[in-house]
Design brief:
This protein is α/β, with parallel strands linked by helices and about 450 residues long. It folds into three domains: about 5-170, P-loop containing nucleotide triphosphate hydrolases (Rossmann fold, 3-Layer(aba) Sandwich), CATH 3.40.50.300; about 175-250, no CATH class; about 280-455, Nucleotidyltransferase, domain 5 (2-Layer Sandwich), CATH 3.30.420.280. About 35% of the residues lie in helices and about 20% in strands. The chain has 17 helices and 17 strands. It has helices at about 15-30, 40-55, 105-110, 115-125, 145-155, 190-200, 205-210, 215-230, 235, 240-245, 255-265, 320-325, 355-360, 375-385, 395-405, 425-440, 450-455; strands at about 5-10, 35-40, 70-75, 75-80, 85-90, 100-105, 135-140, 170, 270, 280-285, 295-300, 305-315, 335-340, 365-370, 390, 405-410, 415-420. It is globular. About 40% of the residues are buried.
Length: about 450
């Protein structure tokens, strides 16, 4: 254990029970400690309290019972008289000091109720001192929200020396559970064996140093039959790798089906750069002052195929920096550079537009798309997907953003809204929409500059 622990797990491994009992143990044997439990909602937290904490407390050994008499016992609190320690469940603990904090199924909270997640992040997490312990455990629910962000950050520091405020990532896959096996001698489908063979190349094993498991036939049978029951949800409920846990997008994601088909057809793979073909770029530019991410997709076209060979994202960079240190640093021969319509907005800081800046540095190959509706752009992306190939390594983050791009919801009620959510995924998704609109307007043929100029009527700055 570390002072800050984030746990990505499969279903039914007993992790919630284990952590709840650790908190009870601390309350019994420590003085003046307050331990807290947060779940998806208050009834869920109370259920953990009643079925785990109270169940265990009522069955303590007889020699210990006289020393842990409760001074207060409700559905939400166990306070002990002798040592002045307690366990509470609540929706947040702002303004308190919590020595051990357990947050259960945080992915669901952060994906469906971002306002609640923000209150937990700013209230409950800040209530735990540097020497206290935090346990955040959950199955995944897509790549949107705090939980997905925290897992990714913790993974980046997996081999680093951690400070007390850094999170240590723990991943518990389904195959660590011995009971998840069926040894009946039944036939295993070829596609099941192929799936397990491909796991050997997953970055989780290559980057983490974890031993690649040797899967038994009994484990493969269990997985195959569980998949027939769970469908695509098996990757979220019973993941084999951390990336796989986040592959299935949450409700409201725009490109779930398209990405699933691309994976199934092996169109997310190794896509080399073809030096005989131009590389085009599609941009979403961060706000003035660097407040948002800038995202660039790099793609080539060949015989009806769209090959996404690379992607880049960064925050806080000026446009000339990106052009000099990113665009020109790559060994690509460029064709068109596609910018969104808001690139023509004049910036107060420079007195000119980013479109003019880009055109000054990259020349007449810089083009600006006209304003179009978001719904039309999303439909253009869906049309494009059938003939699109992605480089799995260079576009990994970009693909994750496309998977996380989803319909917005009311922060308090979780009610779906008729608009995309503006978050860390939306910038890459916006850039990809511009890419799709560019391809659609070309009609799959070589761009005709005259018709382009007539369509856009762009007047560039001097």
């Amino acid at each position: 254990m570390h002072t800050r622990n984030i746990i990505l797990k499969s279903r039914q491994l007993g992790m919630t029970t284990l952590i709840a009992l650790l908190l009870l143990d601390d309350a019994v044997f420590s003085r003046h400690h307050t331990n807290g439990i947060i779940a998806r909602d208050l009834p869920s937290a109370q259920a953990v309290f009643e079925t785990i904490i109270l169940h265990a407390f009522e069955r303590l050994p007889s020699w210990l019972v006289p020393h842990v008499r409760p001074k207060n016992l409700t559905r939400s609190e166990l306070a002990l008289a002798v040592n002045d320690s307690r366990i509470e469940v609540d929706t947040s603990f702002r303004g308190r000091t919590i020595h051990h904090l357990h947050i259960s199924e945080y992915a669901g909270i952060s994906a469906h109720a971002p306002d609640r997640a923000r209150e937990i992040r700013t209230g409950a997490l800040n209530a735990v001192p540097k020497t206290g312990r935090i346990f955040i455990e959950s199955t995944a629910e897509g790549r949107s929200g705090d939980f997905a962000d925290m897992v990714e950050r913790a993974w980046k520091y997996d081999h680093a020396r951690l400070s007390p405020l850094d999170y240590r990532l723990f991943f518990f896959p389904w195959y660590d559970e011995p009971e998840y096996a069926i040894d009946d001698g039944g036939t295993i489908l070829p596609e099941t064996r192929e799936y397990f063979a491909t796991l050997r190349a997953d970055r989780f094993f290559l980057e983490s140093g974890r031993d690649i498991p040797v899967f038994t036939d009994a484990q493969m049978r269990w997985y195959e039959r569980k998949k027939s029951e769970q469908g695509d949800d098996i990757r979220r409920e019973f993941p084999s790798t951390p990336d796989e846990a986040f592959e299935v997008s949450v409700e409201g994601a725009y490109y779930t089906r398209e990405l699933a088909v691309a994976h199934a057809e092996w169109r997310i793979t190794d896509i080399p750069y073809e030096s005989a073909l131009d590389v085009h770029t599609a941009w979403d530019i961060g706000g003035a002052g660097g407040g948002d991410d800038t995202v660039v997709w790099f793609f080539q076209r060949y015989s009806g195929e769209i090959r996404i060979i690379d992607s880049w994202e960064g925050s806080g960079y000026a446009l000339p920096e990106i052009i000099e240190n990113v665009i020109r640093s790559k060994p690509y021969r460029y064709g068109w550079h596609v910018f969104p319509h808001d690139a023509a907005v004049r910036e107060y800081s420079t007195g000119t537009t980013r479109l003019a800046t880009a055109r000054n540095l990259l020349g007449s190959s810089v083009r600006m798309l006209p304003r179009s509706g978001i719904a039309d752009g999303i439909e253009a992306v869906r049309e494009l997907f059938a003939n699109t190939w992605f480089d799995a390594k260079k576009c990994r983050d970009g693909i994750a953003h496309l998977a996380g791009y989803r319909r917005d919801t009311d922060g308090k009620t979780g009610t779906p809204l008729d608009r995309p959510r503006h978050d860390r995924h939306s910038h890459a998704a916006d850039a990809f929409r511009y890419l799709a609109m560019f391809v659609r307007m070309e009609g799959g043929e070589r761009w005709k500059p005259d018709s382009f100029e007539i369509a856009f009527q762009e007047k560039f700055e001097e």
